[in-house]
Fold this sequence. Notes:
The chain is mainly α. It is 72% helix and 3% strand. The protein has six helices and two strands. A two-stranded antiparallel ribbon has the order 1-2. Helix 1 (12-19) packs across helix 2 (23-32) and helix 5 packs antiparallel against helix 6 (140-171). The longest helix has 32 residues, at 140-171. It is elongated, with a radius of gyration of 35 Å. It starts with 11 loop residues before the first helix and ends with a helix.
Amino acid sequence: MSSEPKLKQLTAAEAAKLFAVDVRTMTRWIADGLPARRSGRAQAIDPVAAVAWVRARDAEAAEERLEAALARVDPDSALGRKRMAEARIKELDLAEREGQLVQADQVEDTWLLQVVALREAVMDAPAVAVQSGLIDTDKELALEEILRDALAAASKNLKAVAEDLKARAEAGE
C-alpha cells in the first residue's frame, strides 16, 4: 500500500492553470502524449504524471536545442574557436574550484623542495654509512661520487620529462 496520498485528477482547464498555459496548449500536450484518460467528455489528468511528462519533454527540448547550437558552431571559424576556448576555460575554472586542478607553480615549488630534501638525504648517506660502520672511511669519497653521478643522471632525466610535459601543455594535449 502506498503511503503517498492520492492526488485529485485534474481537468484540462485545471492542468492548464497549474502549468500557466492556455487550455488549447494543454489539449495539444495531451495530443502529443501527456498522460490523460477520458472521464466522460472531459480529460482526467494525473498531476504527478503530468509534471513528470512536462519535465521530460522540457529536458528533451533543451538537449535538442543544445545539440542544434553545437552543430551550428563551426570549430574552424574564429567565432567557433572562441566559443570552444571559452567553454574550455569555464570547464577548467570549475575543475579548479572543485579542487581537481592545482596551479603549476604550486606543484613546481613543492616538487623543488622535495627534490632538494631527497638530494640532501642521498648525499648524507656516505657519511652515515661510515659512522654506522657499513663502509670504511677511505670508501666514503668513492660512494659520494657514485651518488653524485646517479643524481646528475636522474636530474637530466627529470629535465627531459619536464620539457616534454611543457611541450605537451603548450600543444594543448
